[in-house]
Amino acid sequence: MTKNVRRAVWVCALGYLMDVADVHLFAVLRASSLADLGVPAARLATVAGWILNAQMAGMLLGAFLWGYWGDRFGRLKVLYGSILLYSAGALGCAFVRGPAAYAGLRFVTGVGLAGETGAAVTLVCELMGPLERGWGVTIVSGIGFLGPVLVIGASRWLPWRQVYALAGACGLLLLALRLRLVEPELFRKGAGAANHAGSWRLLAQPRQRRAVVFCLLAGLPLIFCWSLLNFFSLELGRAVLVAGAAFSQKACLAAFYVGASAGDVLAGLVTQAWGSRLRSLRAFLAAGAALSAVLLVLGPRLRFSPQALYALYFAIGAAGGCWVLFTMLAAEHFGTNIRATTSIVIANLVRGFTVPMVFAFQALRGAMTATDAAAVIGLVLYVPAFAALSRLSETHGLDLDYVERLEGACAS
Fold first, then answer.
1. pLDDT band at 16 (very low <50, low <70, confident <90, very high)
2. What are 185-219's pLDDT values in tens digits?
């Protein structure tokens, strides 16, 4: 790797660390922050679900904005704009006085967070060679997923408002590092009106449309691990722990996030060793499905000790930690002129699926136990994911120096 490429990889890794930390700030701080804001314990899960949905709705909106801008105006401009917005949102959360304002600021933060992952992965993929970019993305993801662990550590020493303020300040400091990066040569070659950069007409074509749908389906089980099993670990833990066990949700979250960081590094190593994105992602999804069944189906019958449950959540985090492998697979399926659009939109549509998933979970809990409700949702998501993977193309070693063309249009 050249000096510029190494700098880009490490700066994107630090940026991704801040992104993942901010995405999961509310998951870590929800109990302490909502209690301080006067939310009764009986309504904690409901109010937390609404605020989480507000954040994810913001990420859905941001996906369409940042993706288009990333292909029209540059990957770096998206990184600059997104970090400014989510840092401002995090700073604002330090001063909220009620759940409504809290939800509004998490919505704003979500809009900003939407641009980070896809733009960073796209930037690294386009700067590195076909057989090397897996290593670059492995560094980015392995460091990035330690972000929530740092948040948990900070929350043990600082009040929740100061944790939000610290996250916002660190984001703004990171922006200074990013000002030294340069746009990839592939983007400069593929940009411009002649190549319809960022055009939704390109995505509306049959081949591209099918690829988007299959990538979305393949990624949904990952958000099931992150935004349902992990976020609602407090509620699910009560159903699977031995009676009277002392359970720490922060310890459970930390176990999951450390597992996710280890899993993302492992996913990068496996895909490089096997020379296959699809085979690697299929293996991680299979592990996630099996571990989810242990938690949700066997858990209420076996009853775990807290230590066993933390170990299980570490394993679930490792299985669901192949997020950047999934994002890289999505980015590699499309040409340079819509690569940022598709990678950002796909990643955030998958994240945004949290909204209907949380609504479904809360609705099903009225008719069945929390573990049964989560198991039903998991079954609905894992089966189509495996079918979708069989329809996607292998992209390991693929040359990304190409653009998408409108069908029937003359080459420019």
1. confident
2. 776 665 555 555 556 777 788 888 999 999 999 99
The one-letter amino acid code at 394 reads E
One-letter-per-residue 3-state SS of the chain: CCHHHHHHHHHHHHHHHHHHHHHCHHHHHHHHHHHHCCCCHHHHHHHHHHHHHHHHHHHHHHHHHHHHHHHHCCHHHHHHHHHHHHHHHHHHHCCCCCHHHHHHHHHHHHHHHCCHHHHHHHHHHHHCCCCCHHHHHHHHHHHHCCHHHHHHHHHHHCCHHHHHHHHHHHHHHHHHHHCCCCCCHHHHHHCCHHHCCCCHHHHCCHHHHHHHHHHHHHHHHHHHHHHHHHCCHHHHHHHHECCCCCCCHHHHHHHHHHHHHHHHHHHHHHHHHHCCHHHHHHHHHHHHHHHHHHHHHHHHHHCECHHHHHHHHHHHHHHCCCHHHHHHHHHCCCCHHHHHHHHHHHHHHHHHCHHHHHHHHHHHCCCCCHHHHHHHHHHHHHHHHHHHHCCCCCCCCCCCCCCCCCCCCCCC
pLDDT computed for residue 30 by the predictor: 87
Give the C-alpha separation, 306 to 249, whole Å: 10
- Asked if residue 112 belongs to a domain, the reply is yes
Domain CATH code at residue 10: 1.20.1250.20
What residues have CB less than 8 Å from 133, skipping those under 6 apart? 124, 125, 328
Q: Does the residue 411 lie in any domain?
A: no
Q: Which two tokens stand for residue 26?
A: 């509310």
Would 284 be classed as within a structural domain?
Answer: yes
pTM: 0.82
Q: What does the alpha-carbon distance between residue 342 and residue 215 come to, in Å, rounded to a whole number?
A: 10
Q: Quote the domain boundaries for residue 132.
A: 3-184+198-389
The larger pLDDT score, comparing residue 236 to residue 323, is at 236
Q: Collect all residues with Cβ–Cβ distance below 8 Å to 362 and sequence separation of at least 6.
A: 45, 46, 49
Q: Is residue 404 part of a domain?
A: no
The mean per-residue pLDDT over the stretch 160-178 comes to: 87
Instruction: Provide the domain count of the chain.
Output: 1
Nearest CA to 119 among 57, 181, 167, 168? 181
Using a pLDDT cut of 90, give the percent of the chain over it: 41
Phi, psi of 391, rounded to the nearest 5 degrees: -105, -5
